[in-house]
UniProtKB/TrEMBL annotation:
It comes from Sphingomonas aliaeris. This is RNB domain-containing ribonuclease. GO terms for molecular function: RNA binding; RNA nuclease activity. InterPro entries: NA-bd_OB-fold, RNase_II/R, RNase_II_C_S1, RNR_Ribonuclease. It holds the Pfam family RNase_II_C_S1. Residues 47-356 form the RNB domain. PANTHER family: DIS3-LIKE EXONUCLEASE 2, RIBONUCLEASE. One of its GO terms (biological process) is mRNA catabolic process.
Amino acid sequence: MKTLIDPDLALAPGLAAIRAQFSVPTGFSPEVLAAAEAAAARPLSEHADRTDMPFVTLDPASSTDLDQAFTIERSGNDLVLRYAIADVAWFVDDGGAIDIEAWKRGTTLYLPDGKASLYPPVLSEKAASLLPKGPRAAVIFTVRVGPDGTSLLDGAERAVIRNRAKLAYDSVQAADLPPDFAAFSVRMAEAEARRGASRVDPPQQEVEAVAGGGYRLTFAPRLASEDSNAALSLATNLAVATALQEHHTGLFRVMAGPDDRAVARLRQMARGLGLTWPDALALTAFEPTLDAADPAQAAFMVALRRAGSGASYMPYHERVVPWHAAMAATYAHATAPLRRLADRYVVQAALAIANGQAVPDVVTQAFETLPPVMARADAIGGRIDRAVIDLAEAVMLHGREGEVFPAVIVDADDRGAHIQLRDLAVLASAKVTGRPGDVVDVRLVKADVEARTLGFEAA
């Protein structure tokens, strides 16, 4: 899971070790910083003036790398989203120092104590970020969403915008948002249900101090504002993907769904967690009923996220329909160019297509070479995420050796079992026997903070 909140810095020593282990960048070379300073001062000479449009942003309160701003209006029965995406390509020269460094990194890496940005902060958190102060460079995607939730790319342009308000998930009010913001989210959700999409967004994990000493790891439910905001990116990414596919170009996000064996394990786990999943109900129909505010259901959502084969990137190929099982659609990443290298090129391709222009050769070539670069970056990010969670679990349980915990077997083989504690947000290996879905009691025998490992045995 990419987000873990650690307000009391209980993880600080362990996080330093993780940064060293995975060689997390600590900054940028003088050459890259100098290029970024020069790029930040570049005049916006090819951008239309759209500062009269009432754009706002909606993000975590502390975010400064703002990729997206939006406004929504009605057009007959359609809802028209104008989605302004940070125009990173305007500031980054192909083959220049900033570009070369971005290809080495691939993505921004996030840890509870800070991030290692894809681009220097003078760009990612200032000149290229869609912050409220001053006019900002953007590519505005006009996305038309019909009553059935189908989204189409209706135009794209380079423009100068002004962000009227930096809104935060935990404090935003309905009056702060466009009048049709909620209706837009409903349309997208209903369309997902009709497609049979199985997109799952598990809650954040938090490290909380416990009275009397120690820590615990809990799930913090997603806010409704987060889900509604995600609908804007979803609509845009779907519309861009359709446009790219129709023009025989692009880079797509693809993912296979859980196989029959994985679904069977999930059913057993659901029974062990006490969840009601009727035999006749498909996984795609069961997922929308899950409530992240319930610890057992939140734990199941995490297991579900891990049950698939994982997403990857694929360039356009003739007679191949790129498919993302969780979205139940052809899908692309276009809305986070400050944080993902691939998005910069997808935005450029969509901008060209929308204006009847040829996709630049450098973009087409990048589509072929980006998949392994993004795969490596995603893998490193995933390993860091797992290491952070392992650290949090060890910190939380250190000092509780000898205690017995109820658990559910998630998976098992001849080497032991993988368990989910029923009352804590912990997944771990254990020396127990049984089948997936069995409820067992396990005793904690080790919680090694330095090694980030836990040891459980049958109680």
